[in-house]
Amino acid sequence: MVHTVKRGNSSSRKKEVCTVMSLIKRVNSSRFYLPAVVALIVLFNFVSMTMLSGCDDKNSKRGENEPNNSFETCNLVRPDITINAVVDPSGDDDYFCFDVDEEGTIVTGEVFDFELLTPFIEFYGPGPDHELLAAGSTFVEDEVGLPLGRHFIVVGDSNGDGGPDYNYKLRITLSGPTPPPTATPTPT
């Protein structure tokens, strides 16, 4: 049902309302319901945006979000995540960051599932100097001491190459601090 209000020239309003109502009738007559269609569109947009973004929403697998070419523009992620990424263009380095809140936490970074990439991976600590804590070609692991805070993993191509086919996956995991050794054996 269409309700119209008589104020001034309403012929264009009637035409717009009739066009919208005609569209709704066509959608409903084809056994689709407009609210369901709208909900699906919203859901699709949300899923596609979260898959492409580097936001921290406890998702265990996602893609990187450019720009992430410096400590200042790093993708903030939650550890225990696998990230789909690409080194593009040539010379691109990808920066990922996460927070470590407990001394003794073991951080592991692993680059895998790559073909063209000749990877390097670096693990940096917090602070203005970003001390290099560990480096490798496909794997780093280090126990975090003081200071705590935001830490960084950087991935790039060791030859400075890159392009749209320089895909890789990065897995970042954290494990709790190792308990201190006891003076007496622990019964099992």
Record field, number of beta strands: 10
How far apart, in Å, are the first and last alpha carbons?
76 Å
Strand composition percent: 25-35%
- Low-confidence regions: 1-28, 36-60
Radius of gyration: 26 Å
What is the CATH-assigned architecture of the largest domain?
A: Sandwich
Structural class computed from helices and strand pairing: alpha+beta
Under CATH, the topology of the largest domain is which? Jelly Rolls
Tell me the series of helices and strands, N- to C-terminal. Answer: HHEEEEEEEEEE
Numbering strands along the chain, what is their spatial order in the largest sheet?
Answer: 1-3-10-5-8
Compute the number of helices.
Answer: 2
Choose one word for the global shape: elongated
Count of all domains: 2
Q: Major sheet, described briefly?
A: 5 strands, mixed
Helix content: 10-25%
Description:
This protein folds into two domains: 11-49, no CATH class; 61-175, Jelly Rolls (Sandwich), CATH 2.60.120. It has two helices and ten strands. It has helices spanning 11-29, 34-52; strands at 61-63, 75-76, 81-86, 93-100, 106-112, 119-124, 132-136, 139-143, 149-157, 167-175. It is elongated.
Q: Could you give the topology of this structure?
A:
Elements: H1 11-29, H2 34-52, E1 61-63, E2 75-76, E3 81-86, E4 93-100, E5 106-112, E6 119-124, E7 132-136, E8 139-143, E9 149-157, E10 167-175
Parallel strand pairs: 1-3, 2-4
Antiparallel strand pairs: 3-10, 4-9, 5-8, 5-10, 6-7, 6-9
Short descriptors:
alpha+beta; 2 helices; 2 domains; 5-stranded mixed beta sheet; 20% helix; Jelly Rolls
